[in-house]
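hiii, so i know i said id send this last week but things got crazy w the move. better late than never?? heres the sequnce for the chain we talked about at the cafe, plus the structure i predicted for it. fair warning i was half asleep when i ran it
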Amino acid sequence: MGKITTILFDCDNTLVLSEELAFEACAELANEILESKGEPDRYTGPSLLKDFVGQNFRGMMTSLCKKYNFTLTDSEFDAYVDRELGKVIETLEKKAQPCPGVVPELDALFAKKHYLLAVVSSSALSRVVASIKKTGLDKYFKDNHVYSAATSLPKPTSKPDPAIYLYACKDLGVTTAECVAVEDSRSGATAAKRAEIPLIGYVGPYEADEQQTMYDMLKNECGAIYVMRHWEEFPKALEAVEAAVAKL
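okay and structure toks below
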């Protein structure tokens, strides 16, 4: 009989309303890249978010190269990553807010001390730390239990690659079967699925017309056991996961 001991939270638009802020900064750099390659298309923050939600900037640039069939050198990649990170962190330190309802749920989890809590993100570690510090969520994640696919791994990657989940589980000393992941995007949910980690989906930050589409995708395509529209549903979601895992 399985038992959940560990909860792994995505950060961007799962714990912190950071995606729109980050994509404002990313759009400027994406447009600079497109202009340098002679491409007429331009992105806004929302249109970039729609195309590349759940990816870190390195993954986004890789997708941009594939979409428009051009290449960037390693040094160009690194230079853009360095510039993007500074822009995004500056914005987050000024404007980041927690997702509605997340603070009471984390308070309750932290007080119970029944679960190990960790953040598992595609974003650079400094960006994740800036987000959770500005919103006061850092107090829930002790002992450096914050993991970044862009920073923590020997070779940087991005979800949907499951590598960061597997790395986090190994570092925390837990099996994937005793964890539950909380994700809002296809790429993040797919990473959890590939790591064979039970999944709770979250669609709260999406616009009303997108929520049902994302709900269906997380549930049907990515196999989420429960999909939340608001964080107040978290106790029910966790109960559903624990009931499903107990049957295994």
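btw The beta strands are 6-9, 116-121, 146-148, 179-183, 199-202, 226-228. thought thatd interest u
miss u guys!!
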